[in-house]
Design goal:
Number of domains of chain A: 1
Strand content of chain A: under 5%
Helix content of chain A: over 70%
CATH topology of chain A: Tetracycline Repressor, domain 2
CATH class of chain A: Mainly Alpha
Largest sheet of chain A: none
Oligomer: homodimer
Largest interface: A-B, 44 and 44 residues
Chain lengths: 192, 192
DNA sequence: GTCTATAAAATGATAGAC
DNA sequence: GTCTATCATTTTATAGAC
């Protein structure tokens, strides 16, 4: 089961299809056809359609959780932590662009106990980021703007990076990280 | 047909349900039940499930198109135009928070000719915003960062405002607009 | 304008042959 | 490991009674 190459293909193709039309719009027949087999054959590799969604979404959610935990703990300034969080999102987006679409839009179709686990991870992520911003304001590293607006704005941009990244070529990872840091942390206006 | 109050109720309830689970996850039975009637009764007011989606999505898409057209034409600075675009998004989000969710996530389930029309409006919107940013850079009102990154970052935040706005109370429209302008245009870092 | 009854198609999933 | 055949359920939508 560990080396089931076919299962990996199924998950990869499913993530691609879910990204285009969403979990509910893709039938097992659609998925099978994209793989060149019949729908019934899928069940030799996966237990159910639900399991496919779960494997796709939970893996990425766990990567984000591990990432933010590590950044939270490290002994660096708040601005440096925000820089690392931007890098975390860019890295995961590049590696799991299709899956992120389901993390953003299909998570509500998870079933218990995954649904509860996902929501806890998501809330925990937001809370850790909120604490980093709060400390940054206290230490006068970050402007004293409404913290929830700030949090929302950063997360919106980082979470939807996948919508835009795959369309643009000619920008490498380092350049992208640099631009994102500039825009998210320093703004675009010149009139100060 | 103009004064069909029931039809308006159907569209409003449908938008609420689509927001929670997406167009494909909501059946006509679900919608009917939320309205306290049977599924068959819906068809006295609407032609099909497709028509419901179309009415919800296209109205909001047209509002955005009208708004950006008007802003584009007016004789004000680029930064002032960006300020007005932020106001446009805040206003439409407050008035059509449920519908915006379908505009973001369910538009791909539109059928022709609506699908093509929607995509044209969306591309047109992005292009008008791109031109405003470009002129702002030329006139030295806006920092000379990668224009596509800037465009993407602004739109990501503005388009997902609905995810966040309905959760937070205690912030009024004017305050929200002010904070968004600050974050999107001036950034959050203090170290310059 | 809403109901019951029902058609026609699509869906997730299983059984068993090869 | 994939196939054909099939099942049980759900789905959108229509017809016709009230």
């Amino acid at each position: 089961m560990k080396g089931d190459q076919r299962k990996k293909e199924i998950l990869k193709t499913a993530a691609q299809l879910f990204r285009k039309k969403g979990y509910n719009a893709i039938s097992m027949r659609d998925l099978a056809q994209a793989l060149g087999i019949k729908a019934a054959s899928l069940y030799n590799h996966i237990k159910s359609k639900q399991e496919i969604l779960s494997l796709i979404v939970m893996e990425v959610a766990e990567s984000f959780t591990l990432g933010i935990d590590s950044i939270s703990k490290s002994k660096i300034s708040s601005i440096q932590k925000l820089n690392q969080i931007i890098e975390l999102h860019v890295n995961i987006t590049i590696e799991h662009a299709d899956a992120i679409s389901s993390v953003n839009n299909d998570w509500m179709h998870l079933k218990e106990p995954d649904l509860d686990s996902f929501i806890k991870m998501r809330d925990g992520y937001e809370d850790k980021l909120r604490k980093i911003i709060k400390k940054g304001i206290k230490d006068k590293e970050i402007a004293d703007i409404n913290i929830e607006v700030m949090l929302f704005s950063m997360l919106s941009t980082l979470r939807t990076l996948h919508l835009w990244y795959s369309k643009k070529q000619g920008i490498n990872k380092e350049e992208l990280c640099g631009q994102m840091k500039h825009i998210l942390l320093k703004g675009i206006s010149l009139d100060k």
